[in-house]
Task: inverse folding
């Protein structure tokens, strides 16, 4: 891909720097297509898809295809995926519903950018089985239980996870329509989930100390203006550290790159481009010259923690850069979330 076709944010990251970040992700990809957290680290199905999306946005379509084929090959007969792999071996057999839904987001993004309908159609049964599995775990209010194992489901719903599933369901419905396989049952399930996210906080475990519970209902499209603006303003000083980025949790002196870039995407989705660009600029203190990114910084003592440069952090940076720069046809994957 020509540099002119790569995302770039003027004065912050050039197209060449974005290409280096994509290369840092590609360098960790394993021969079977899996994208672990870092070379030799474990792979989870959600962050794997996030990395595939970044590879797509950076024009590395063949590597993204390999990643999505890995997803298809590792899906179980019930439509789920194990939570964690390491170099081809399953380390955690439980299923995280959010992980199982996210392939729909990745493949809609891939279709928007590559136009490769045949490839997406080939993987459509994998998406369909994953979404059908997730919806077997929908609760009383429309919430989605977060995990399932040998003893059944967890009985617990998480606001962040259910918000991400809401977005993935919208992508799945869009794919279903585009591929001539409409799923009105998914539309109804998504509407129930959206209602739960907006109107039934009692359905979700209280994890309000996590910044993701603050911004994810906005990032997912479940909450939009004016309620989104009110939500952002209410907790801005709790989670945003001036000049450094966003905290992962409210009660720890720790800013993280992925959460900051997801907040950038949420702000972009409600047209607060100025705040989004400022945060995106500030989080570049986590960048290394090879384009990789440290997961976070403990600002109380100025130390990187954990001492990992994660593929999914670089991926979040690339996706945020694409959204801010409006570069690829997939730049609006979060901004134009389907209404319910």
Result:
């Amino acid at each position: 891909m020509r540099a002119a076709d790569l995302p770039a944010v003027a004065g912050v990251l050039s197209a060449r720097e974005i290409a280096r970040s994509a290369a840092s992700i590609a360098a960790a990809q394993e021969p079977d297509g899996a994208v672990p957290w870092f070379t030799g680290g474990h792979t989870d199905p959600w962050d794997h898809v996030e990395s595939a999306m970044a590879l797509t946005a950076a024009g590395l379509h063949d590597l993204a295809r390999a990643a999505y084929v890995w997803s298809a090959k590792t899906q179980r007969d019930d439509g789920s995926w194990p939570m964690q792999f390491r170099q081809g071996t399953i380390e955690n057999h439980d299923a995280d519903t959010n992980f199982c839904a996210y392939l729909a987001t990745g493949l809609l993004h891939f279709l928007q950018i590559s136009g490769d309908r045949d490839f997406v159609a080939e993987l459509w049964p994998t998406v369909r089985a994953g979404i059908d599995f997730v919806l077997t775990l929908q609760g009383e209010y429309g919430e989605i239980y977060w995990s399932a194992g040998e003893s059944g489901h967890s009985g617990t719903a998480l606001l962040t996870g259910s918000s991400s599933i809401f977005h993935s369901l919208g992508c799945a419905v869009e794919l279903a329509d585009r591929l001539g396989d409409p799923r009105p049952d998914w539309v109804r399930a998504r509407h129930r989930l959206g209602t739960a996210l907006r109107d039934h906080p009692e359905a979700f475990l209280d994890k309000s100390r996590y910044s993701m519970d603050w911004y994810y209902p906005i990032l997912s499209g479940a909450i939009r203006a004016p309620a989104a603006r009110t939500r952002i303003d209410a907790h801005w000083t709790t989670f945003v550290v001036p000049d450094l980025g966003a905290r992962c949790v409210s009660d720890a002196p720790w800013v993280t790159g992925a959460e900051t870039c997801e907040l950038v995407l949420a702000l972009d989705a409600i047209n607060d481009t100025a705040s989004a660009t400022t945060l995106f600029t500030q989080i570049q203190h986590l960048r290394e010259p090879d384009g990789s990114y440290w997961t976070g910084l403990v600002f109380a003592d100025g130390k990187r923690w954990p001492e990992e440069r994660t593929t999914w952090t670089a991926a979040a940076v690339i996706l945020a850069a694409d959204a801010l720069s409006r570069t690829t046809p997939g730049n609006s994957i979060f901004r134009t979330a389907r209404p319910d």
